[in-house]
Specification:
The chain is of the alpha+beta class and 91 residues long. The chain has one domain. It is built from 2 helices and 3 strands, in the order E-E-E-H-H. The chain has a 3-stranded mixed beta sheet with strand order 1-3-2, covered by helices on one side. Strand 2 and strand 3 form a beta hairpin. The longest helix is centred in the last third of the chain and has 18 residues. The chain is globular, with a radius of gyration of 14 Å. The chain binds zinc ion. The site of zinc ion has 8 residues, from loops. The site of zinc ion (ZN) has 8 residues, from loops.
Length: 91
């Protein structure tokens, strides 16, 4: 499998994906990535969480679901790949 068709997009680069505050300091380790598989390949949506919005371990599943819904909703509302999105809608 090749990554030739993989596309990387950033959700609110430089900002917290949950609260919108600017990410201060080193963003490494605060990044989350959601891969969406579509008919034309994988789209990797990258987002970042600041320290205040890092969920407690017990809250990770719920926080992950909420963040995934937000990222997918954002991605679908953009027009990065309208053809791929239209095909996904009918899958
Ligand atoms: Zn935050």
């Amino acid at each position: 499998m090749t990554d030739a068709t993989r596309r990387d997009v950033a959700y609110r680069a430089g900002q917290c994906a949950r609260c919108g505050r600017l990410i201060v300091g080193d963003p490494r380790g605060q990044e989350v990535c959601l891969d969406i598989i579509g008919p034309v390949g994988v789209v990797a949506i990258h987002g970042w969480l600041d320290r205040q919005c890092q969920p407690e371990p017990a809250a990770v599943p719920a926080a992950s679901r909420a963040l995934a819904r937000r990222l997918i909703g954002w991605y679908r509302s953009t027009h990065i790949e309208p053809l791929a999105l239209a095909e996904v809608d009918h899958a």
